[in-house]
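Limitations

Structures in this collection are predictions, not experimental determinations, and the ligand pose is part of the prediction. Treat each record accordingly. The example that follows, with S-adenosylmethionine as the small molecule, is included so readers can see exactly what is and is not provided: the inputs are given verbatim, and the output is the predicted complex.
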Amino acid sequence: MDPDAISRTYRQWAPIYDRTFGALTRPGRLAATARANERGGRVLEVGVGTGLALRHYTSGIHVTGIDFSDDMLRLARAKVGPTLDATVDGLHRMDARTLDFPDGGFDTVVAMYLISVVPEPERVMAEMARVCRPDGEIVVVNHFAGTGGVIGGVERLLAPFADRLGWHADFDIGTVVGSPHVGEVERRSLPPLGLFTFLRLTPRGDAVGSG
Ligand SMILES: C[S@@+](CC[C@H](N)C(=O)[O-])C[C@H]1O[C@@H](n2cnc3c(N)ncnc32)[C@H](O)[C@@H]1O
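Predicted complex:
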């Protein structure tokens, strides 16, 4: 999807996102934030959306979120307040392909349900690796082609969302784990039905600065 199409698509989704796709994808959000909490420090959430994950970060975590959709960001900003345990350093409108952050500034970079939506996912992987500390971690949660218990059922479950989210239901995991900018550390399936995959990755040393 081109950037204008992203804005148009998510303008329609924003008001119902939390009750539909957002609810179905909660287990992945819990898994990704649990890992970020274990690591501590500064977290960058790329494609923060309506900010559904913000309440899961624990005290001491500093979160920065970026998203291309103003409509999704507005809902994320409305979730920031004293009920959150973590500190939200900022929620910015930004394209994941050109992150406006210096190299190596984040302990953990998290991308949930983003990578099969963005244009140029290879470039997004490079950018996430660049802004991650050399000893940091990149956590990706997504649906990938050929994963999930009963594939027919899984694809049927996702079908109402896929097209309208600009989501590529047949997205190849190789685009993520085969990126020259990262190394794979962990891969596991997540509910419902093993539909989503949790990945932990480390930035490759030579990725920093290679944009
Ligand atoms: C399926 S939603 C996931 C939102 C959130 N991560 C969650 O767990 O609910 C995908 C998000 O990616 C954002 N997005 C798509 N392309 C983007 C880009 N190039 N740069 C930044 N955000 C982008 C969309 O605006 C949308 O909020």
